[in-house]
Amino acid sequence: MAAAASSPSPAPAAKKQNKWLRGNNKVIDRYLGEARAALAAAAQQDTEDGDDAAAAALGLVNLVLEMSPRAEAALELRARALLALRRYRDVADMLRDYIPSCGKSCCSGDDATTTTTSSCSSGSGDLAAASRMELLSPDRDRSDAGAAAARFLCFDVSELKRRLVAGFSRSSNTEAQWRYLVLGQACFHLGLMEDAVVLLQTGRRLASAAFRRESVCWSEDSFSPPNMTVSRRTSKSGSASVAPAASEAESVSQLLAHVKLLLRRRAAAMAALDAGLPAEAVRHFNKVLDTRRSVLPHPFATACLVGRAAAFRSAGRPADAIADCNRALALDPAFIPALRARADLLESVGALPDCLRDLDHLKLLYDAALRDGKLPGPSWRPQGGVRFGEIAGAHRTLTGRIQQLRGRVAAGAGEGCSVDYYALLGVRRGCTRSELERAHLVLTLKLKPVRSVSFAERLELVDEHRDLEAVRDQARMSALFLYRMLHKGYSFIMSAVLDEEAAARQQQDEAAVAARTTAAAAGTPTSMGPGLQGVFCRDMAVVGSLLSRGGFDRPIPVKCEAMSC
């Protein structure tokens, strides 16, 4: 009895806990409702007011996550609020485990960045890699429905069976489908086009499957246009989550079609470049970069600019190739393929000091990658096919190349430090003045520093990147350097052309004098040169001086007209 009396009864504590949980759930539901209303208002307002409403919704959702870190509705609203605020990197960090490229890198193990990627957990923190692969499998809905139907084969009432199957399988994919839709849109803005296609297709497939399962529970009278769009859906925990409406489904379909079109055009450009058709590759890259349908994410545009630079180089247009590399580096100064391509181009035209500057910058990036154990930038950002395992070997090769180029520069201009301006301007040696002027005019009009910043207006810079003014300043400085190099090359080649023209005229004059001397020695009359035919002069004395300088010994009947002043 004493032991029983000393131990407190758990009934009052359980009642207090249940009362606290009920009050906490009421607060959570109220915050979620306000956050939902703020996001709906943000979608209908302009940029500034919409950002304020989305920021307010994000604050409310963060309060909910402090009280209930695993609330599915709060996680969804947080991801959608970050997407409305254009904080795409935060969305990718929150749902990193669902990015297919990160999953492949984690499973491959050949990249040192996979250790950091696998050790980091997503913001939601609720599904593992096996469940992700299961959700990505195309037969998941079929297998789940088949397994659930196999459990209830003993029931003869088909309507009850369909309702139970829909109820059991409702929360399996509906809790994860928003992840694919939101993350797919964020991956598009981050330039991860392949991942965006996979995620958007998976999210749309899961949404269609969920709608089909829910429509089983409806009566025939409920299939009206207002009921076809489900605005809210309740999970097992009782919390409501925002389901994709008809407008969102339409926008996702349009975005998916746009991404597929961009990928097809880029694939066609790379195929044309591999087939030895650089002009065709340039045409396809121009369609990608000059798109007017939607904004273009700057990571994807950076990779396309480097690809078009390779096509320009294959077509014998190094100035255009250097200009594209300058644009790519203005967007992303740490993009390794752009630095490699510009260094190779500068070395091919003989600009060795500028090539050494790019190679030193590339060496600093390699040193930082070896020190940090990962490539520059986030682990999911594409680096044009560059892998961390290649950095050590590329660093050794780069060190030897830098030493060799420094030796060539120290040897002087006679050992390869003079720029090949003919290759830079795209003209042949011994070109005429008209060919040189035409080539220079085309390049200067195309690569003018004033026009070099217009490309950034068609691109979208993600939130962690520099602002637009910094990109414009970097592009303007690089374009000014290339413009000065082109003008210097034009002056150098024009002086050579003028020297060749002067030497040709002198050679013609010497040949004419030699011919007249030979004719005078032979005693044969010489005809008047073409330079004295049709001469109109005001003074006869000038005509006589012209005839005397022509070396005429005998008077030749020439019809000359004079006009007195």
Brief write-up:
The protein is an all-alpha fold and 565 residues long. The protein has 23 helices and four strands.
- Helical proportion, percent range: 55-70%
Bin the strand percentage. under 5%
User: What is the CA-CA span between the terminal residues?
Assistant: 148 Å
Low-confidence sequence ranges: 1-8, 16-21, 105-157, 160-172, 225-244, 528-532, 560-565
Q: Which quaternary structure do these chains form?
A: single chain
What's the story with the biggest beta sheet? 2 strands, antiparallel
Would you tell me the structural class of the helices and strands?
A: mainly alpha
Give the integer mean of the pLDDT values.
75
Order of helices and strands: HHHHHHHHHHHHEEHHEHHHHHHHEHH
Shape: elongated
Strand order of the largest sheet: 1-2
Number of separate helices? 23
Rg of Cα set = 37 Å
DSSP, total strands: 4
Word description of this protein:
68% of the residues lie in helices and 2% in strands. It has 565 residues and is mainly α. A hairpin with a 5-residue loop joins β1 and β2. α3 packs antiparallel against α4, α5 crosses α10 and α18 packs antiparallel against α19. It is elongated, with a radius of gyration of 37 Å. The N terminus and C terminus are likely disordered.
